[in-house]
Amino acid sequence: MMEAHRAPHRGVRVVIWSASIYFLVESFFSFSCVFRCPWLAVTICPAVPPCCAVLFLFVLANFTMATFMDAGVLPMASEDEDKDDEFRAPLYKNVDVKGVQVRMKWCASCHFYRPPRCSHCSVCDHCVEDFDHHCPWVNNCIGRRNYRYFFLFLLSLTFHMIGVFTFGLIYVLHHMDELWKLHCTVTLVVISISGLFLIPVLGLTGFHFYLVSRGRTTNEQVTGKFQGGVNPFTRGCCNNLEYLVCSPISPKYTVRPCKKTVIHIQPPFLRPETDKQTPVKARDNGIQSRDLQNKVCMSTVELSDIKQQKTPLPLPPKPDHGLLKSQVAHPVITTHTTAAVFSWHIYCTMTKFLLALRPCCCLFFYCVAQLLKTSEQQGNNKGPDLRSESRGSPVRGSHQAGLPVQPLLQASAVSSSLQLNSLPLNSRSLTLKHSSRHGSKSHLPAMHADGLGSNPPPGIISSSGLLANHSSSSSSSLPYDNLINPSDPQFISQRGAPSVSYHPHFMSLGTNGTVQRPPPHTYSPVFMGVSRHSPHLRDLVPQELTPPKSAAARYDNFSKTIMASLHERRELEDRERMLRLQARSQALYGPDMGIYDIPSRRSLPPDNIRPPGSRGPTPPAYGSREFLMSTGILGYGMRTSPLSSSSTSSLTRGPKTSSSPLQSGSSSSLQSKGRSSSPAYCPPERQTQGLPSSTSTLPRLFPSNASSAPPYTSYATTKRSSLLYSSEGKDSVTLGALK
Amino acid sequence: MRHSASLANKVFIQRDYSEGTTCKFQTKFPSELESRIERTLFEDTVKTLNNYYAEAEKIGGQSYLEGCLACATAYLIFLCMETRYEKVLKKIAKYIQEQNEKIYAPRGLLITDPIERGMRVIEISIYEDRGSSGSSSGSSSVSGSTAR
Predict the structure, then answer these.
(1) A592 — contact with chain B (CB < 8 Å)?
(2) Is residue A235 part of a domain?
(3) CB atoms closer than 10 angstroms to residue A7
(4) Polar residues bias: where (chain A) (predicted)?
(5) What is the pLDDT of residue A462?
């Protein structure tokens, strides 16, 4: 429909353009080649014809360039660029150009804020950079790229017409007696046409000379943009002329021949923090992980401390979360950290661990802690190590001995918000750390591989067999991985050997209590069997430790009540964890499964990445429709409200046909602030699609100008807005959004 | 198991018009990239691009000569010779390509040449790790393209 509407106008334009070409050619031929050149060469100067020819060639060349050269058309913005709701985005955006506030208007057709000096040509229906005007004589927009050629065309045409007129007049004056002969008649016609058109062309040339000297475009001149104010785009008269003639030709933006080069983006991705963590990781004694997550290190250290505690601690006050985070940067816990912080870590991690795995594991931990206490009392520095590694952690000395299970369980009850996935991570990291400390890393890769790779339930059976058979703790970790895996595939990535090593015992104890989660049921038979193997506990722990039987007995006494409370917590967290993990999927980074994908920015949905000041989400933009409706301020009177501190953003863009799923992460804020300007200059094309009520109350000073009106008509309509703009331009407050 | 990346977000670095209509981009570090790339790297990239564009738009002897030559040949020279600006654009494209390969792609980011957006914005695409995909349904790599 648009095309049909524009067809007659296009036809008229083509006619005008053709006429101008014809006139040019005709004047050349009729003047120089047929009649006057020989006479002029003889009478005045032999150089006249060549100069005229060159001049005419120059005119034609500039005319061609002005006609066919891209004026600096800005391609339409992709959908991704504009992700704001139409109703919330302001119509104008202020920007500071050399200290002068310039208003950038939203172009509804091209979907971007028009750069300064850019304007939308209604004839050609595109935005043009440094838009001057649309010239019907060349049937093209005049803009940044072709203004020079247009200006030179005007200049050369003026000289050409002056030449034609002058030499024609001289010829006629010398042939007055032959006035009615053909050659004189033609010359008379030519000089009369030349003289007739010379006046407007001369006027136009002079006008553009003036514009160039002032550094303005025709659009700016006609709309009176810088009438009363300072033009920030001028460089001075001489520099403007220099810029006009000597500036490099800017490139074409549309239809560029581009050489597509393929860049592969393959996870895992580097992160800025990970670079700092690299040296720390190296101290993990060979436990390499590609994913250098900070929390892994933190949890590693925390769990190591649990093992080292010698005396039970009361529940310490929860340390500052920031403090916890600070530990991330220093994963190797030394004596520098406070005991209270570590205690809290221990509680948190233990709770997560327990809730994630089995309710019984806390009880087991208690047993282990007791064992550790007794073992340390005996002078054996073996902690609750199910791997038969001797513990020589330097950290031990700085922390208290093993915490009792009961406080841990209490902590677990209150720490339901803790993330479950870090718990198995912690337990795994604990194993890794301890094994690294003790230098026995051989089994770790195996643990890794099994932990990650083995999924099938049959692994349980085989592992249970292994459980029953193994006698050395060094290999005990291997089957435990298989036990863990089938229960929850998602846990594969999160749990490791160390947690697995606890598993059978927890499960065995847990069967006495309540086993709720479906996955654990898969364990049940296995652990039922395992539970009976109390001597296994002896196998799993170093020989120096006291037999676990006594610990298990003690555990039975308070297991049931604890299990009940834990059960509730665990169910909630299980659900939470499942959702999270499913959404995230297994973000594994290779076989080195010492590191797990703790919820980080990366794994969060894009919404979380949204900056607070983005155009998308939360607070309604000043001046936006939402804001207006929320504050109840409607109508023009809003100027006096806080809204008036925002610019013309009282006007909104209007509805958009397409919506983009992506957020605009642009650093520029569309919350433009500044003096609210005039106003009712509504967006042209989409007005009829239902303006927001806020703008509808604003007076419309002039109608939309979407149709293909003559260019100067459009100047008139914009002139009023520009006048208003110029009056307020001085008062505008700098947004600073773009700075 | 192969990891795949998916486009999560796009950041648009806007033009800095404080010095007029010369091509210059803001060096303000967007918040979306805070956890993805170091600030210094980003700022270096944008500053280098700004320098390239300043070099392309510089009014000097070369641009003057180019204009005169073009006039003298009735602009027929444009048919066989590329302008200085175009030459710098090629350098810019090469630089962006190199930055993408060395710095941005390993961090899951991709810079789009501003010329493709009409020199209005630098578009930085942010990719997220979609985790491992055993099947071939997900693309295991994302292809970026740079102009020229």
Answers:
(1) no
(2) yes
(3) 10
(4) 686-719
(5) 41
Could you tell me which residues come within 8 angstroms of residue A268 by beta carbon, excluding any fewer than 6 positions away? Answer: A290, A291, A589, B3, B129
Report chain A residues whose CB lies below 8 A from the CB of B13: 666-667
Q: Decide: B120 and A74 in contact? Cβ < 8 Å.
A: yes
pTM confidence score? 0.53
Give dist(CA A318, CA B132) in Å, integer.
37
Interface test with A, best of B98, B128, B130 (most A CBs within 10 A): B128
Residue A403's Cα: distance from chain center in Å?
46
Residue A135 annotated among the catalytic residues of the structure:
yes
Of B38, B85, B132, the CB nearest to A248: B85
Burial class for A472, CB neighbours closer than 10 Å (0-12, 13-18, 19+): exposed
Report whether A493 contacts A588 (CB < 8 A): yes
Instruction: Give CA–CA dist A224/A222, Å, rounded.
Output: 5
* A609–B131 CB contact, under 8 Å: no
Q: Is residue A232 part of a domain?
A: yes
Domain residue limits at A164: 8-74+133-254+343-368
Number of domains in chain A: 1
Model pLDDT for residues A335-382, shown as the tens digit of each residue? 455 556 556 666 666 666 666 566 565 676 667 767 776 766 665 554
Of A269, A611, A663, the CB nearest to B129: A269
Asked whether residue A239 is domain-assigned, the answer is: yes
Q: Is B130 within 8 Å of chain A by CB? A: yes
B60 secondary structure, DSSP code: S
If you search the block for the tokens 């071939």, which residue do you land on? B136
| Residue A246 counted as domain residue | yes
CA distance B129 to chain A (A): 6
Q: Which of A135, A360, A361, A367 is catalytic?
A: A135
Look up tokens 């006027």; give the residue.
A203
Looking at CA atoms only, how far is residue A493 from chain B in angstroms?
12
- Is pLDDT of A121 > 90? yes
> Beta strand pairing status for A100-107 and A140-142?
unpaired
Q: What b/e sequence results for A183-192 when a residue is b if at least 16 CB atoms lie within 10 Å of its CB, and e otherwise?
A: bbebbbebbe
How high is the pLDDT of residue A672? 38
The count of C-alpha atoms lying within 13 angstroms of the C-alpha of A59, restricted to the half-sphere facing its C-beta, is 25
Q: What angle do CA A285, A289, A295 make, to 5 degrees?
A: 90
The 8-class DSSP code of residue A418 comes to S
Chain B segment 85-114 residues within 8 A of A by beta carbon are 85-86, 89, 93, 97, 100-101, 105-108, 110
As a whole number of angstroms, the distance between CA A624 and CA A42 comes to 75
pLDDT tens readout for residues A290-320: 444 444 444 444 444 444 444 444 444 444 4
Residues of B in contact with A241 (CB under 8 A): none
Instruction: Classify the C-alpha dihedral A678-A683-A688-A690 as positive or negative.
Output: negative
Angle value at C-alpha A523, between A519 and A527, nearest 5 degrees:
155
Would the CB atoms of B107 and A271 count as touching at under 8 Å?
Answer: yes
Query: Cβ contact (<8 Å) for A112 and B120?
Result: yes
CA distance A64 to chain B (A): 10
| Position A438, amino acid | H
